[in-house]
Design brief:
The structure holds two protein chains of two kinds. By secondary structure, chain A is an alpha/beta fold. Chain A has two domains: 182 residues, Rossmann fold, CATH 3.40.50; 129 residues, Rossmann fold (3-Layer(aba) Sandwich), CATH 3.40.50.920. Chain A has twelve helices and 14 strands. In chain A, helix 2 links the parallel strand 2 and strand 3. The mean pLDDT of chain A is 97. The model of chain B has no long low-confidence stretch (mean pLDDT 95). Chain B starts with 5 loop residues before the first helix and ends in an 18-residue tail after the last helix. Chain B contains 13 helices and seven strands. In chain B, helix 10 links the parallel strand 6 and strand 7. The chains are: A alpha/beta, B alpha/beta.
Chain lengths: 332, 342
């Protein structure tokens, strides 16, 4: 029998994933700053402390480095911790434990341990929180072998990918765009997983492939709908996982459309777009290209406070439409 | 507690802690392991000098009593996290030297299958969660292991070894605070050998004794002479009892000295020959322990020679095992990055 499907917000979907896992497996527990009675800075953990108690929903001191290390240590010794960073920017305080310890411990010890830790990172701009609370640092972690890095774009995927992450024996970093938390969408009840490492074609098209991540998937779909009126048929791929990347889905799409546009919120240089572009340039899809590959990413600046400046810092729908149109019409 | 006899126990009533606590046979085993650590490191150093081992290594020669004393009251399933100067901890927790040599030689029979080397030596089966190349990197991980012990009610105690250098890292302070607020069964062991690489604790650390840091986290801070096995073991016993009783963590500062330089690149320009000579001649932990054992009639020259001979054989066999073990295939370079999934 198919599961009942309800409309839930992205934040509710994540909370439901955590609750589902905690009910199924007593090793699963939550750690983070103000995730207990406060409910988390973005109310993602919400009332879970009332259901599962303070022993499984643990408020940590403001100690990102130490907290991440505690999560790693608990994971290595048999527990399944989910560590919430209050903002993804605070990963900078914990990079030692994430990059040197969590990512490498299994390797350094010759496979004698696994590190089944999940770390959650509320990310992205658009909330007026300025330069230290708005960054998109997923490519930093995507650069590290040993980590898996995911960016679900819908409530359905947020629940299913988080459940997949919790079940995964290796460290999984999940980047959640803060502007998506309130977005609603269909979410099945009960346990299900959405595989890590598999992209999803959100819209099929013939003229152009857009590879987008996180909130940019929705902006790309909006742009695609507008372009349809102009007779431009856009395929939109939701990358979903940036490490390990689903190369085949992108390659097949580019072979079909012969044009590639990468859209992501993080700073454009040395990011996801560079990786996707180079991957296509190295693949047999290169011969199918009818136009240069184009990247639309964040400006080469910290995120500003002023709302108009903030908006202008990251790709928006009109910019995606213009770039796609130029690509298809051969302006570039 | 298995004392040789009631009479033996009575005659030892005024002796230092370990001589009351352990049998002569157990103490001989301690001396054996202290020699094993010393000779293992000397053997590794010689192999390095002869070009059989590459990279670098950090020798703990002179710190053997600290590693042995702390591990003495630990059960096999208790856990430790260790440091870049971690060979002694690994042996003290029960590792076999042949598999350690094999790791240093980069062989598949090594504890880390040749992927870790000296700086990541581990023996997970014996509770050693690994040495660490990052100063203070293992301290929060030990607290996490302590949290697992509490949540899973396994009764395990976790020891985190680190050096004096680590006491000025943020991770140290964050970890001690969390262990204290959650009353976790963790023992923080600072092996203060006087220098973080070249910088003396006098120049690097605001407090005179690192154990004073414990006050900031409401836990006992205990200072021991790290070169006297009995002193270290007694402090460890008390800390383990406190941890097992659910009363929370302890910080032990074990004051000791490394005879060798920081690593293989050290030219010893930051300390005097006289200082090194003084520690080697007058405060060597093995000499001190051996002297006590003789004095209390627990071993004689013949017994000591037997230990030395047995250790020499074990070291020679270990090096031979490492030499003749297979190297990993280059085609397996991706192994262990991720967990293999069916």
């Amino acid at each position: 029998m198919d599961a009942v499907v309800r409309e839930l917000s992205y934040a509710q979907a994540i909370q439901e994933a955590m609750a589902t896992a905690m009910e199924m497996d007593e090793r699963v527990f939550l750690m983070g700053e103000d995730i207990g009675v406060y409910g988390g800075a973005f109310q993602v953990t919400g009332d879970l402390v009332e259901r599962f108690g303070t022993e499984r929903v643990i408020d940590t001191p403001i100690s990102e480095l130490g907290g991440a290390g505690v999560a790693v240590g608990a994971a290595v010794t048999g527990m399944r911790p989910i560590f919430e960073f209050q903002f993804s920017d605070f990963a900078t305080l914990a990079m030692e434990q994430i990059v040197n310890q969590a990512a490498k411990m299994r390797f350094m010890l010759g496979g004698e341990v696994s590190v089944p830790v999940v770390m959650r990172f509320p990310a992205g701009s658009g909330t007026g929180a300025a330069a230290q609370h708005s960054q998109s640092l997923e490519a930093w972690l995507g650069h590290v072998p040993g980590l898996k890095v995911i960016q679900p774009a819908t409530p359905h995927d947020a629940k299913g990918m988080l459940l997949a992450a919790i079940a995964d024996p290796d460290p999984v970093m999940i980047f959640e765009h803060k502007l998506l938390y309130k977005m609603k969408g269909p979410v099945p009840e009960g346990y299900y997983t959405v595989p890590i490492g598999k992209a999803e074609i959100r819209r099929e098209g013939r003229d152009l492939t857009i590879v987008a991540t996180s909130i940019m998937v929705h902006k790309a779909l909006e742009a695609a709908a507008a372009l349809e009126a102009e007779g431009i048929d856009v395929e939109v791929i939701d990358l979903r996982t940036i490490r390990p990347m689903d190369k085949q889905t992108i390659i097949e799409s580019v072979k079909k459309t012969s044009r590639l546009l990468c859209v992501y919120e993080a700073v454009k240089t040395l990011g996801i777009g560079a990786e996707v572009s180079a991957m296509i340039a190295e693949s047999d899809a290169f011969d199918y290209l009818d136009a240069p590959i184009v990247r639309l990413g964040g400006a080469e600046t910290p995120i500003p406070y002023n709302p108009e400046l903030e908006k202008a810092t990251v790709p928006q729908v009109p910019g995606i439409i213009a770039a796609a149109r130029d690509l298809v019409k051969g302006v570039r | 507690m298995d004392l040789a006899s009631k009479a033996g126990a009575d005659s030892r009533a005024n002796l230092p802690f370990v001589y009351r606590q352990y049998s002569a046979e157990q103490l001989k085993q301690v001396l054996h392991k202290m020699y094993l650590i010393r000779r293992f490191e000397e053997g590794a150093e010689e192999c390095y000098t002869r070009g059989l081992i590459h990279g670098t290594m950090h020798l703990s020669i002179g710190q053997e009593a600290s590693a042995m004393g702390i591990c003495m009251p630990l059960a096999e399933d208790d856990q430790i996290t260790s440091t870049h100067r971690g060979h002694g901890h690994c042996i003290a927790k029960g590792a076999e030297v042949k598999r350690m040599f094999a790791e240093f030689f980069g062989k598949t029979t090594g504890y880390c299958k040749g992927r870790g080397g000296s700086m990541h030596i581990a023996d997970v089966a014996k509770g050693n969660l690994g040495a660490n190349g990052i100063v203070a990197g293992g301290i929060p991980i030990a607290v996490g292991a302590g949290l697992s012990s509490k949540m899973m009610k396994t009764g395990k105690v976790v020891v985190s070894f680190f050096g004096d250098g680590a006491n000025n890292e943020g991770a140290f302070h964050e970890a001690l605070n969390m262990a204290a607020i959650w009353k976790l069964p963790v023992i923080f062991v600072c092996e203060n050998n006087g220098y973080g690489m070249s910088t003396s604790t006098a120049r690097s650390t605001a407090v005179k004794n690192i154990a004073e840091r414990a006050a900031a986290y409401s836990m006992p801070g205990v200072i021991v002479n790290g070169n006297i096995f009995s002193e270290v073991a007694e402090a460890s016993h008390q800390a383990v009892a406190r941890a097992r009783a659910g009363e929370g963590p302890t910080l032990i500062e074990s004051k000791t000295y490394r005879h060798r330089g920081h690593s293989k690149s050290d030219r010893n320009r930051y300390r005097t020959k006289e200082e090194i000579e003084d520690w080697m001649s007058n405060r060597d932990p093995i000499t001190l322990f051996e002297g006590e054992m003789r004095e209390f009639g627990l071993i004689d020259d013949k017994g000591i020679q037997a230990i030395r001979d047995a250790v020499a054989q074990e070291i020679a066999d270990g090096i031979e095992f490492a030499k003749t073990s297979p190297s990993p295939d280059i085609e397996n370079i991706q192994d262990f990055v991720y967990t293999e999934q069916a």
